[in-house]
Amino acid sequence: MLQILQIVLPVFLVIGVGYAAASLKVFTADQSSVLMRFATQIAIPCLLFLAISRLDLQAEFKMNVLAPFFIGALASFALTSFGAWFLFGHKPGYRIVIGFAGMFSNLVLIGLSIVELAFGAEALKPAFAIVALHAPFCYVIGITAMEISRADSVGFVATVQAVVKQVFSNAITVALLLGIVANLLDLTPPVAINTALELIARAALPVALFALGAVLVKYKITTSLGEVSMISVNMLILHPVIAYVIGRYVFNLNDDLLKVVVLMAAMPPGMNAYAFADLYDRARGIAASSVLVATVLSVMSISVWLVILR
Q1: Measured between alpha carbons, how far is 214 from 249 in angstroms, rounded to an integer?
Q2: Number of domains observed in the structure of the chain
Q3: What is the pLDDT of residue 148?
Q4: For residues 106 and 112, what is the distance between their CA atoms, to the nearest angstrom?
Q5: Where are the beta strands (DSSP E) in the chain?
Q6: What is the per-residue DSSP string for 14-80?
C-alpha cells in the first residue's frame, strides 16, 4: 500500500499545494486562471502535439483498447442521465449536463500523471490514443443529446454547427489534430522549434496540477449532494468496472493494456464538466461540486484501483 501511495500522493500533493496557495491568497483568482489557461491553452497542447506526432498510430489506435473505455464512458453518461431523471426528477437539460459530468474524465491533468507514475512512460502510448478521441467523443454525445432533448432545439444543422464549433475551438483538440497530420505526413519541426516545444511541454503536467488545485478553491459544495454522489460513484467505480469487464472478457486485453484502460477510466470528472454546464446555463452548481468532490475522493479510489490492477 505504501508503494501505491507513493504513486498517487505526489499528484494530489501538487494539487493540494495549488489549493493551499489559492486559499491563502498567495495566488489570486485571476492569477490561478492565468496559470490554468497557460496549462490548457499552451503547455498541454504542446505536450499532446509532440506525443501524437511521434506515436505509432496504427499500433496504438486499436478498437480493443479504445472500445472498453468509450463504451464505459457512454454507459456512465446514460446511467447518470437516467439517474438524474429517475432519482432526482430533473428536467431534460439538467439531465444531460449531469450525464456529461458523469462521462467527461480528467484524463489530461490527472490521468496522464498517474499512468506515467504507476506504469512508466511506455504506458502513455495507449493513454494518448484515448485522450486524442476523448474530448470530441464527449462533446459530440453531450451537445447532440442536449439539442435533441431541448424543447427549443434549433435543428439538425445548428446542432452539427454547435458540435463542430465546440470541438474545434478547443486548443487541445486542435493540437491533437495537428499532431495526427504531422504524424501522417511524417513532418518534423525544425530543431529549434522542437526544442522549444519540449521545454514548454515539460511544464504542462506540474503546472496543470498546481493550477487545478488553485482553481478548485472557487468551487463550492452545493446542497445537491445526491447528484454529486451519483456522479462520483459512476466516474470512480462504475466506469472503470465496465471498462475492466469489457476489456478483460470481451476484447481479452493483455494485462499491460488493461491496466492503462481501467486506470484512465477511473479518473474523476474534468473541468469541462463545468464548462459544459456553463455553456448551457444548467446545473452549474452540481457540475462544479462533482469536480471538487470526486477529485478529493479519487485519492482513495485510484489507490484502490492500483491495488486491484497491480
Answers
A1: 41
A2: 1
A3: 80
A4: 9
A5: none
A6: HHHHHHHHHHTTSS-HHHHHHHHHHIIIIIHHHHHHHHHHHS-HHHH--HHHHHHHHHHHHHHHHHH
Query: What is d(CA 58, CA 71) in angstroms, rounded to the nearest whole number?
Result: 21
Q: Give the number of C-alpha atoms closer than 13 A to the C-alpha of residue 301, restricted to the C-beta side.
A: 23
List CB contacts of 269: < 8 A, sequence separation 6 or more. 101, 102, 104, 105, 106, 231, 235, 287, 290, 291, 294, 295
Three-class DSSP category at 245: helix
Q: What is the DSSP letter of 270?
A: P
Segments of the chain with pLDDT less than 70? 1-2, 150-156, 159, 167, 223
Please check whether residue 43 is in contact with residue 201, taking contact to mean a CB–CB distance below 8 angstroms. yes
Q: Which residues pair with residue 105 across a beta bridge? A: 269
The cell 496504427 sits on which residue? 58
Phi-psi region of 195 (alpha: psi -120 to 50; beta: other; left: phi over 0): alpha
**In sequence order, what are the residues at sequence separation of 6 or more whose Cβ sits closer than 8 angstroms to the Cβ of residue 106?**
267, 268, 269, 270, 271, 291, 295
**pLDDT recorded at residue 2:** 64
Query: What's residue 146's pLDDT?
Result: 85
Angle between helices 124-149 and 63-86 (to 10 degrees): 40
Can you read off the three cell numbers belonging to residue 143? 451537445
257 touches 187 (CB < 8 A):
no
Question: Using CA atoms in the order 226, 227, 228, 230, what is the torsion angle rounded to 10 degrees?
Answer: 90
- Domain carrying residue 24: 2-309
The predicted structure's pLDDT at residue 151: 55
Bridge partners (DSSP) listed for residue 269: 105
Residue 279: CATH number of its domain:
1.20.1530.20
